[in-house]
Amino acid sequence: MEMESTDATIVGDINLLLLPEECLSHVISFTTPRDAILCSAVSRPLQSAADSDATWERFLPSDYSSILSRAVDPVHYASKKDLYFRLCDPDHPLLIDGGTMSFGLEKSSGAKCFMISARALSIIWSGEARYWKWIALPESRLCCLSCFQTDTRCEGPRLPISNNQNYSR
């Protein structure tokens, strides 16, 4: 069987296609999700390495299992790549913590994105009808109510912030 080769797979005198898939996967995992997608278009061996769970595991946040365990509905995925793109879908964020928060990833960087429901906030005088009016918004991503305020301050829940992790701004 002849191994396919392109100029893109030759670095100096080394043919990258001769490296074991685990090595290729390890190297690709130090790039970006976009680069992994581009690598998968170069050749079949690079596609196999770029699409591997080992590669995409590195693009997921280190605490993704913990976040998935907090999901309102179970998250089904065929591969880590599939999970990554499922979490990047802005039209279907992952509802967590009983629907009081949503979680997603920023597609190009893998940065964490949290959205907090107004009901998850500790809001001064939130039970006072003269200051607040809670209105149901069925089209809201979060399964809670939205609030409108007059003039007050609020504090939010502590987010699971991790060291050495990118977050979306």
TrEMBL record:
Domain F-box as annotated: residue spans: 13-59
InterPro entries membership: F-box-like_dom_sf (IPR036047), F-box_dom (IPR001810), PP2-like (IPR025886)
Descriptive protein name: F-box domain-containing protein
Provenance organism: Rhynchospora breviuscula
